[in-house]
Design brief:
8 helices, binds zinc ion, Purple Acid Phosphatase, chain A, domain 2, alpha/beta
Length: 246
């Protein structure tokens, strides 16, 4: 099985199309999406259509929850909140229905999918270091688990339940063998708004036969989506940050 994992698309259809093309070249046969299809970007419905057409195994993100009115946006920063207010009235009824159907956690025999962490999926906590990875791994029942939310890719490997054994691979691009490890927790980074100072779109790939995981990056038309953000009247900062990867 070759699992392709994308997430934190955030309405950036330019980045999503580039990632999907790269994943097809990688011969992905199982598609996973870790949440936040909408918010920040100018083409939320286009991104929902692409995710649905791919048949992605999908969980709910915090921005997805916010447009459904399921999350109090007073915890969001001003730009994120402005983007939620821009996005919500532009979604079609079918978009809202699809987002409403998404669970917080999806468990399959081979892998688990959650936006933030397994130890508080409804609180949308972040996996940003070994500290949170240890808590999430404690509750991980499948060998593989895919998360997003921080927009910073990292892979955490646990050989056994002794927490000191955790290996952390936080690079922006990584190829890692997980042979011999009983748990793999993978933060796949962000398609539509990377925040690790690498502006290229990020996605994850896992080959379960070879027991290898990758975080990969692809170039996309950043200027094109910046133009769409400005034309849409979304906050300027949301265009500027894409070129910096922050
Ligand atoms: Zn996000």
């Amino acid at each position: 099985m070759r699992i392709g994992i994308l997430g934190d698309i955030h309405g950036n259809a330019e980045a999503l199309r580039a990632v999907v093309a790269a994943m097809r070249r990688d011969s992905v046969d199982t598609w996973v999406q870790v949440g936040d299809i909408v918010g920040y970007g100018p083409e939320p419905s286009v991104c929902i259509d692409i995710v649905r057409e791919l048949g992605c195994v999908t969980c709910l993100g915090n921005h997805d929850a916010a447009v459904l009115g399921l999350l109090d946006t007073s915890y969001f920063n001003n730009f994120a909140r402005a983007a939620i207010h821009w996005t919500t009235p532009r979604l079609r009824p079918s978009d809202l229905e699809f987002l409403r159907s998404l669970p917080l956690v999806v468990k399959r025999p081979e892998f688990t999918v959650v936006h933030g962490t397994l130890h508080m999926p409804d609180q949308f906590g972040y996996v940003i270091s070994k500290v949170e990875a240890i808590d999430s791994l404690e509750l991980q029942e499948t060998r593989l688990c895919f998360v997003g939310h921080s927009h910073v890719p990292a892979v955490y490997l646990r050989r056994d339940r002794f927490p000191g054994e955790i290996v952390e691979k936080p690079q922006s691009e990584v190829e890692v063998s997980y042979r011999g490890y009983e748990r793999v927790l993978m933060n796949v980074g962000s398609v539509g708004q990377p925040r690790d100072e690498d502006p290229r779109a990020a996605y994850g790939l896992v080959d379960t036969e070879r027991e290898v995981a990758w975080v990969k990056r692809v170039h996309y038309d950043i200027a094109g989506v910046q133009r769409k953000i400005r034309e849409a009247g979304l906050p300027e900062v949301l265009a500027n940050r894409l070129a910096l990867g922050v």
